[in-house]
């Protein structure tokens, strides 16, 4: 992004008529002692400036709209075809869901017996060791990216929030939080 901004600024400056420019209306006919390189010379001479911009494929990006509530950032993602609202939590090791969401997924047939893996222990944000159930989510859709067979934890607490953690986020090489536009850009 910074490279594109620099190139745009350079092209803007090169293309503008400056009041000291000999072609500027008030300076017509006035000679200048300064050596001036024309914009055409700069653009034609590869040794001076490279104007190639990197190719950006928008399909490589997933942009999630953030919702803020009491300082917490929420995003919507799909789990096995069901859209759910998650807390964006870079500190969580995996996707965490409560038994209530797991029950809904199971009743709708999107979470099957073979997707229930094993009991596991994890450390929660308070430092307490808690018990949960490890499950396999066959399809997790984050923006326009589809992830398959993502490990998640069903936390043994009916009131636990949905957390979007590292088992999903580690599938992206770059994560940018854009607070001005309330979005998360993943690529």
UniProtKB/TrEMBL annotation:
Q: Which PROSITE patterns match?
A: PROKAR_LIPOPROTEIN
Q: Which UniProt keywords apply?
A: Signal
InterPro entries recorded:
Peptidase_aspartic_dom_sf, Retropepsin-like_bacterial
Is DNA-binding tagged as a keyword? no
| Secretion signal span | 1-19
**SUPFAM superfamilies, per the entry:** Acid proteases
A Pfam family of the record is: gag-asp_proteas
User: What name is this protein filed under?
Assistant: Aspartyl protease family protein
Q: Which organism is it from?
A: Pedobacter frigiditerrae
């Amino acid at each position: 992004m910074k490279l594109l901004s620099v190139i745009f600024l350079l092209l803007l400056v090169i293309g503008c008529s400056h009041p000291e420019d000999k072609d500027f209306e008030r300076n017509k006919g006035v000679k200048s002692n300064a050596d001036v390189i024309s914009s055409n010379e700069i653009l034609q001479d590869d040794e001076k400036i490279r104007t190639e911009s990197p190719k950006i494929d928008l399909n490589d990006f997933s942009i999630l709209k953030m919702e803020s509530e009491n300082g917490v950032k929420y995003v919507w993602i799909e789990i096995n075809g069901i859209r759910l609202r998650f807390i964006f939590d870079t500190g969580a090791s995996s996707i965490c869901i409560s038994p209530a969401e797991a029950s809904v997924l199971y009743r709708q047939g999107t979470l099957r017996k073979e997707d229930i893996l094993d009991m596991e222990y994890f450390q929660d944000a308070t430092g307490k060791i808690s018990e949960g159930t490890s499950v396999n989510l066959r399809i997790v859709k984050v923006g326009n990216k589809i992830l398959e067979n993502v490990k998640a934890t069903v936390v043994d607490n009916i009131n636990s929030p949905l957390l979007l953690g590292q088992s999903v986020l580690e599938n992206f090489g770059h994560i940018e939080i854009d607070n001005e536009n309330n979005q998360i850009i993943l690529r």
